[in-house]
Amino acid sequence: MILHERSVSGNCYKVRLLLSHLGLRYERRELTAASRQERSAVLGDLSPSLRVPTLVLDDGRALAESNAILWYLGEGTKYVPADRFARAQMLQWQFFEQYDHEPYIAVARHWLRYRGTPVDPAALAERQEKGYLALEAMERHLEKHRYFPREHYSLADISLYGYTHAAREGGFDLDRYPALLAWLERVKGEPGHVPLSA
Amino acid sequence: MILHERSVSGNCYKVRLLLSHLGLRYERRELTAASRQERSAVLGDLSPSLRVPTLVLDDGRALAESNAILWYLGEGTKYVPADRFARAQMLQWQFFEQYDHEPYIAVARHWLRYRGTPVDPAALAERQEKGYLALEAMERHLEKHRYFPREHYSLADISLYGYTHAAREGGFDLDRYPALLAWLERVKGEPGHVPLSA
């Protein structure tokens, strides 16, 4: 398998983290293309949004969207619950991650750490305000449960860990959230865990 | 089952559309709460993002996020492919819908049709530009395939139809996309189809 990725991306890290848990071998290919036109040349037939991560299987079939890739790799393993309702709850948190978490926490991190141009303070404040709402929702859940969606580590934990563990780079104060901090440590202790920088 | 919803929302319509295909009975409950505090009073224990649609099952368990609700209701029916890769492809398009389509097409529609306050032309133009990229990605796919992810109507079609069929209300010119227009008609012809206004 070939993983088209940007190594600093939390979305790409999610896929590497599951691949490590599962002990699967793959080739990493860094996307250096910047413009939409350049990305189209590399990913045009592989990803509708021309984004990474994109996984190309050995038979040439391709899959985009980090959480869909996780599903493909994870289905049938212990990282996907056996119960139908629990599977839907897991997906609930993965859709939450892409809609209410990533657009604020990942974007604030990108602006502050990787973009290299001055950041508009009002725009950053807006992203951070919404990002805190996502962290608060996670904290409320983690006050009652060890993992997402319930008591066992699943794909939803991997999806949420991708950018939450790096949220300080986006200016977020994680010390407000003790249950979340304890969850970050539990995730790090899962067999096969690797850091984003691995 | 109780569906907490806003009847004009395309995200809520997705759930009603699948419930109609499946012939399932449920009670509709319109969310009239406007502020976050009011929404918290209704949805606080049910939806991490305090948003609709939120489905409450007969035993009281709740599920949020339109596409996760679709998954729960659809798993085991003909609306979810049997093949593991096809299931992941279906999810790919559903995550695409929530990340690259809904934030632009649904938001432009909301601003122009439902918000009732003046629209910032530059902000609208930016949403429309990105919305057109999503429509173009759909058109490229539909030039080769009848449905999403391939040749059979699935949850991904329901997810994408929710706001695409109403995109003109967001100022989008759909006549640029003949394959997409033909797909809209095919979806309308599926047994049990109901319009958003039903």
Q: Describe it for me?
A:
Two copies of one chain form a homodimer. By secondary structure, chain A is an alpha+beta fold. Chain A is built from seven helices and four strands. Chain A has helices spanning 10-22, 36-43, 66-74, 84-114, 121-142, 155-164, 178-188; strands at 2-5, 27-30, 54-56, 62-64. In chain A, strands 2-1-3-4 form a four-stranded mixed β-sheet, covered by helices on one side. In chain A, β3 and β4 form a beta hairpin. In chain A, α1 runs parallel beside α3 and α1 (10-22) packs across α6. The longest helix of chain A is centred in the middle third of the chain and has 31 residues, at 84-114. The first copy, chain A, is globular and about 45 Å long.
Summarize the structure.
The structure is a homodimer. The first copy, chain A, has about 200 residues and is of the alpha+beta class.
Counting DSSP E segments of at least 2 residues, the number of strands of chain A comes to 4
The multimeric state of the shown protein is homodimer
Structural class of chain A: alpha+beta
Helicity range of chain A:
40-55%
**Count of helical stretches of chain A:** 7
Which two chains form the greatest contact, residue counts included? A-B, 35 and 35 residues
Apparent shape of chain A: globular
